[in-house]
Structures are given as C-alpha cells and as structure tokens.
Design a protein that fits this description.
The chain is an alpha/beta fold. The chain has one domain: Phosphatidylinositol (PI) phosphodiesterase (TIM Barrel, Alpha-Beta Barrel), CATH 3.20.20.190. It is 27% helix and 14% strand. Strand 8, helix 9 and strand 9 form a beta-alpha-beta unit. Helix 9 packs across helix 10. The longest helix is centred in the middle third of the chain and has 17 residues. 43% of the residues are buried.
Length: 321
C-alpha cells in the first residue's frame, strides 16, 4: 500500500472498518452538495464517495445523473422542474447553478426513497473544485476522495470525450495538490484504463454490479458502460487486478465472505456500495470488507460502535465498551 498512501485511509484492519459517505450523506442531507459533504465530515466520516460529470463548458461538477433529476431540482421560481429532464452536458455552469438542489419532491418515487432527508433552499450543484477546496481548509485536513467519473452511455464509445472528462478531473485534483488523497473510481473500465495512463500516481477503484441486480429508481444505470461480466473467464476480482485495479467496489448484494477473501488474497481492497439497512451493514462487516459506502453514515457508525469497531484510526475515535 505504500505506493499509494491514499489507500491507507480505505484499508480495513482488525477492529477497523472504513466508512465512506455516499454522495455525502444522502439519507439525511441533500446529495452531492457542499452542505451534505460538510455534515458528513463533521460527523467524523472523512472519506467521501461522489460523482462527477462535465458541463457544456467542460467544468467538472458533482452530480450523479447525466440529467438533472426533476424530483430533486427546483427552478428560479421555486417550483419543481417538469417535463424532459435537462442534460448537464448541455448546460453551461452558470445555468446549471441557477437551479436549487436542496430538497426532494416527496410525491415522487425518488423522493419517497429518502423521507428523512432535510429540505433546504438555495443549494447549488457544486463544482469539483468547490468540493476539493474543502480539503485545503483546517476542517478538511483528513478528507479523502473516492471520485467517481460518470461515463455517458451516449458518448462512452468516443475516446476523446472520455479523455476530456478524465483530464479535467485530474487537472482539478493536481492544481490543488490532492493526488495523495484521491482514488479514481468508475464503472467504466475503459475510462479507468485512461486514468492509468493520465494519472498513474492515483490508484484506481473498479465499481461493479452484476446484471441480476436491479438498478435503483431514479438512478442512471452504468451497466451499459461496464464490462460484460458474463463473458469473463476469471473471477471479477482477478479481472480487476489484471486491469490494474487497486480497489474493488462491488454492489453489496454481490458480496460474500468468499469473494472478499479471494480479493484480499489478490491484494485488492474491498469497499462495497451502497449499504443502508442495519442487517446489511452487519452482513458486510461479517464478510470482512475493508470499507462500506453508505447513505447513512450515522446509522453505520452506530452499528460499528455496537460491535466494538471503529471507522477511523486515531485517539479521538470512540469505541463502544
């Protein structure tokens, strides 16, 4: 792990299971927002998983879907967006940041998934630079980034488009000197190959979800840009290693103690996503994962504390007796 010091913050150990805030703390705070990320870091969960796409003017911004989700976006009139969803890559940053992403429409399927999320106003889609700048402040000194680049299925086959996304992301990280606090992360293994060429000093995390698992409502699917796992003649963890991966991030329904053990034997870290229910959190701990990506950092903290486990190293970490 010494080749990539940023991986130390994702490495589990006896008594230690890492927690990573998914889109900040989506279960209780507006997702992929500075407000949500600040809340997560203040709670003691310093590793963040989030999503990056490019605007029309090629600015990396932190948002999950390639289109603004109507269920989570209000216009300047304060009303929820309606009709065909706006594509982020078709909007300049100035227009994108005119929309309010501080709440969810509770009448929608997506809004009903997170009934405990607070409702805020005047919250904007942040640029990647806005988020990275948090790590340069005293309160962000321990922050780590599991930075997911989102390949657009419509353009993933165009190398120039993928290279631009990677180049803009890497430039934003490098200009702030945050290479050793960043892990590059994607479902698109072709994109990760480009990362290995452009940014060999940053480790790569390979996201996977097996075809049998359904996509979550309101979420862009990444299955079309991922490899054809059914055609692989080796276990997925081995394929990750052969592709130059340093971390494997499988969907929690695909995790068993056996696959985790196999991945560890290959030298991979295993960080699973997105684990929200108490029973599933316990199951992931029992499976031996290094880290857990969750929408509910507080809930996951309590599960670990009840088991006498910690999520960060250091003297300030509480341990349940």
């Amino acid at each position: 792990m010494t080749q990539f010091p940023q991986l130390d913050g994702f490495h589990g150990a006896p008594g230690l299971v890492r927690l990573i805030g998914h889109r900040g703390a989506r279960g209780v705070m507006p997702e992929n927002t500075i407000e949500g990320f600040e809340f997560t870091v203040r709670s003691g969960v310093v590793a963040l998983e989030f999503d990056v796409v490019l605007t029309r003017d090629h600015i990396p911004v932190v948002t999950h879907n390639h289109h603004l989700l109507n269920a989570a976006t209000r216009g300047t009139d304060g009303k929820w967006l309606q009709g065909e969803e706006l594509k982020v890559s078709a909007l300049p940053l100035s227009q994108l940041q005119s929309y309010d992403v501080g709440g969810l429409d509770g009448r929608t399927v997506y809004g009903q998934r997170f009934p405990d999320q607070v409702f805020m106003s005047n919250v904007r889609v942040p640029t990647l630079g806005d988020l990275l700048d948090m790590a340069l402040k005293p309160q962000g000194a321990e922050m780590l980034f599991l930075l997911e680049m989102k390949s657009d299925p419509e353009t993933a086959h165009i190398p120039e488009m993928t290279e631009r996304l990677v180049s803009e992301v890497v430039k934003a990280v490098r200009v702030r000197g945050l290479e050793q606090r960043t892990v590059l992360h994607s479902f698109d293994w072709n994109l990760l190959e480009i990362c290995g060429r452009i940014a060999p000093d940053m480790p790569r995390s390979f996201l996977t979800i097996m075809p049998k698992n359904a996509d979550d409502p309101g979420e862009d699917s990444s299955k079309s840009v991922a490899p054809d796992f059914a055609s692989m003649d080796v276990p997925v963890s081995q394929a990750v290693v052969e592709a130059g991966g340093h971390m494997w991030c499988p969907h929690y329904l695909d995790v068993t103690p056996e696959v985790v053990s196999q991945a560890h034997e290959l030298g991979l870290l295993v960080t699973t996503w997105t684990v929200n229910e108490v029973d599933d959190l316990h199951r992931m701990v029992d499976a031996g994962v290094d880290g857990i990506v969750t929408d509910y950092p507080g809930r996951a903290q309590r599960v670990l504390l009840e088991r006498g486990l910690v999520w960060n190293e250091g003297p300030d970490q509480m341990v349940a007796e």
